[in-house]
Design goal:
The protein is mainly alpha-helical. It contains six helices and no strands.
Length: 140
């Protein structure tokens, strides 16, 4: 008696290809190009770039992949959310003394843009897509 199901389900019994290929290098037109273009702005940005590069080129396990996706963008409290709060903080004259050189009207407009960025990222960001990917990986 065959172990193949009576009703065909595409890919159900297909052999799983071995995952022994090396992690591919970064592409210059995508992530690699963005990392190059953002080099040298500030040591903090360079540290973020280094972390992104490490995550992109590291040989992650399935569990690592799910955890990294969750930490980056899959939950409300994620790295993407932290970037939104950072943008809001950097555009606020009360938390960024560098903006003291701006006149009051301009400073308020800059602050408003930062607040809007953080709000829209939190409310309308694509967090659900990352959560769905995690669920698929997890078999949910």
């Amino acid at each position: 008696m065959s172990s193949y199901p009576e009703r065909h389900k595409p890919g159900e019994m297909a052999p799983i290809p071995p995952r022994t290929q090396p992690v591919p290098p970064l592409d210059e037109d995508g992530l690699g190009g963005v990392l190059e273009d953002t080099a040298g702005f500030h040591p903090g940005v360079d540290m973020i770039r280094d972390g992104i590069r490490l995550l992109a080129l590291d040989r992650l396990t399935v569990e690592d992949t799910k955890n990294v996706l969750a930490a980056l963008a899959g939950f409300e409290q994620s790295v993407v959310t932290a970037i939104g709060f950072l943008v809001e903080r950097l555009t606020n004259p009360d938390t960024n003394p560098a903006l003291d050189v701006l006149d009051a009207e301009t400073a308020k407009r800059v602050q408003t843009y930062g607040e809007q960025y953080r709000y829209e990222l939190a409310e309308f960001g694509p967090r659900q897509h990352a959560a769905e990917a995690i669920g698929l990986i997890d078999g949910i």
